[in-house]
């Protein structure tokens, strides 16, 4: 692969036949191989002069990347063109940063790490084998179409690091499709409605685990060919993986899960989907997921901010705990979204935690703590009993 384009693959494990996560790693390896084939086609097209084009919509520098025949292969989002980055080509965010700094960003998120969040959401989706997030990886691309710093009117076209998400063809925004369904009730058969409910609940699970703060009907895409195909794609996952629960930072900007108001979220989780997810949520799975996420986040943020990364993982573990309890309690996605926020810590993550609540073995011996967040503005973080933790770790 040329200097102008490189692929930074996520970490993978070498699994043995008696490892329950073998199927997960095999699935991810297959996904990686398919992604690399498409990415090489995109790199070849750029080398042949078919340059990416800026997407007008959105608040950051996002680009359609094409193949040799002009087909869209993916969406590239450079790190230094994120909403509040220095080279963002969209003027509204520049004025917001300069003139409305009091409304700058989201206090629960690490600035300019949206590209990492995009790739991390893809990892969560792949490890849970839900297939609702298009494959996304961290790559480096160079193109004169991108925005670069200028020195005396000149700029150097160098590779930019960012997220590359495979493009999904034939999909429309949720607003468009749902309006069509509401207008003509006959478009969606009972069988298709049942299938879409499962897809919708899969998206709810991914959004809940990553604590997505920005799911709306424009980044929930649906492909529906009446009588033939129905599918869902959850894109734009850059505003996820907060360092603290939004409810614990502000009473006014809590970023609730908007999907909880839809009818598909008012039904109990599909039994097969519920059994599948519960079978995945083992201590070993949680450990491996957090290891992968930590490697990804530290790649972009650096070891100097490892406490910030650990804070992100505390929230992820807490969301997984709540997800498991919601499934065991036969709750609906809407009821799960109302659960009090939880954080789950390791002793090595935070010093000075006064009360030891649990100890379990995950990979190597680790002290696991589920703690009450006394600084929560809404005072709603949940305390979990010692016996429940021991049961979870068995």
UniProtKB/TrEMBL annotation:
GO biological-process terms attached to the record: endosome organization; Golgi organization; phosphatidylinositol phosphate biosynthetic process
UniProt keywords, alphabetically: ATP-binding, Cell membrane, Kinase, Membrane, Nucleotide-binding, Transferase
InterPro entries named among the record's database cross-references: Lsb6/PI4K2, PI3/4_kinase_cat_dom
Domain of life: Eukaryota
Keyword check for Mitochondrion: no
Annotated region (Disordered), positions in chain: 1-27
Keyword Cell membrane listed: yes
GO CC terms: endosome; lysosomal membrane; plasma membrane; trans-Golgi network
Catalytic function, reaction form: a 1,2-diacyl-sn-glycero-3-phospho-(1D-myo-inositol) + ATP = a 1,2-diacyl-sn-glycero-3-phospho-(1D-myo-inositol 4-phosphate) + ADP + H(+)
Membrane topology value: Peripheral membrane protein
Pfam families, A to Z: PI3_PI4_kinase
E.C. numbers: 2.7.1.67
Annotated family: Belongs to the PI3/PI4-kinase family. Type II PI4K subfamily.
Cited PANTHER family: PHOSPHATIDYLINOSITOL 4-KINASE TYPE 2, PHOSPHATIDYLINOSITOL 4-KINASE TYPE-II
Stated name of the protein: Phosphatidylinositol 4-kinase type 2
Annotated organism of origin: Caenorhabditis angaria
